Amino acid sequence: MSTVHVQAALPRGLLIAQAWSTLGDAVAPLSNASGRPLARTVKLILDPLVLRPVLNPAFAAGAIGIEHVDALRDRIVQAGPVLAATAAWFLVMKKERRRAGITDGNPQDLYFQRCYELATEHGHPQPDAARRVAAVLAEVHGQDGPTMAQLRDFLAANADMLARRLDREWADRPTTSRPVESARTTAFLATCATAPDRALFKALLKEQTGTHGAAELSHPGVAAGYGLTVRVRPAQPALGATASKNALPRPFDRSILERLFGPVTNAASRSLLADIPTLVSNEITRSVMPWQLAEEPGRVVMILGREASAPLMGGPAEGAAARLRLRWEREAYVHRVQRMPSAVPESVRADVQGVREAYLRRLWVRVHGRELRRDEIVADELWDMLDGVLRSVILDQRDRLRSVLERQSR
Question: Which of 124, 102, 106, 127 is nearest to 115 (CA)?
């Protein structure tokens, strides 16, 4: 007697593609050449606005239980009219963007969700669509603050002067003393998640714990071991002429333009940035400072992150470090790599094995951004920052794992 094996789950990406294909040409502006939804369509529209996996956990995994397959398909098909209207609004948005001569930012990143809002509220574009879109463009791009076009133009127009300034700063860069081990670092991490000690944090700043702790970064391989560079030692950055969000080097290997790329292209916060000449001047100086950060609070955060993340892959852990490791180890994909490393894709093993480097890179980017926005770092926020960085790393790794599994299932 033969046994019939019933598949208990189906690949999420395949289900989404199947449901999407029923929507036809109306959603072509949101689709790739194969007729599947663009990656940004899934990330910016389908996941947060249609499927909403936070509220519908059954839709969150890379493989969808067979009992939830119809519900996921139905959710996308039922959203067909608003998705078609979203696509139509996106075409109008791109046309008006070109007419206005706007070149900053990726249109999909900037407008997909705004087009979905317009579609939800107004349906398909009507004769007044250009006026409505112009208002959105003014809101998105009309904020005060520097733009990438201005940054590129300034670097190009002043390249010789800025290159000399960069050479001079690196020739005269300050030397850091040998590391000073501080028991206060351990003491602060012991309670920062539940009862942050403000006096202790002030003491860490006064002792210049972050500055002294940066001394080791000049030793061969140390900064590379923290994931901050691919070089044996940190080297002088270039001024730079181009930058890509999907191909940014490690923090200490980025050009001056690449270091400013993320904050300048973030429409939500660029109004908090200084003018372009000040930004560039400060960034050149920042690049030679300990941890390549300008202020002691950020350097102390890097020391705290360095210590708290050290036990992620094993070893004794207490306080903040123990909490971070608990969050990390309860992830199913981490369990699987640790139990059966040969049973998971190589890219997933690399993610898990390199978690500390990914953590410290993300932490540096967060601290750097806060310096550019002139946000104060206070003791009461430190645990949220340390924990939030690990959450962000985990979410990125989950997304990459899901993409790998979906590609394998095709």
Answer: 124
This prediction has a pTM of 0.74
Amino acid identity at 265:
T
* 80 and 179 belong to one structural domain: no
Return the structure tokens found at 85. 């209207």
**DSSP assigned state of 273:** S
- Domains: count for the chain: 2
User: Hey, is 10 helix, strand or coil?
Assistant: strand
Dist. CA 309–CA 228, nearest whole Å: 14
Domain that holds residue 367: 173-236+287-409
Are both 61 and 113 inside the same structural domain? yes
Alpha helices (H) in 208-295, listed in sequence order: 209-213, 222-225, 256-265, 276-286
Say how far apart CA 173 and CA 334 lie, in whole Å. Answer: 41
Measuring CA to CA, how many Å separate 289 from each of 33, 85, 235, 283?
47, 51, 12, 10
Residues 6+ apart with CB under 8 A from 11: 62, 63, 64, 405, 406, 409, 410
Could you say which of 142, 160, 195 is where a domain stops?
142
Q: Write out pLDDT tens, residues 178-234.
A: 666 678 999 999 999 999 999 999 999 999 999 999 999 999 999 999 999 999 999
In a domain, 116, yes or no: yes
Are 223 and 84 within one domain?
no
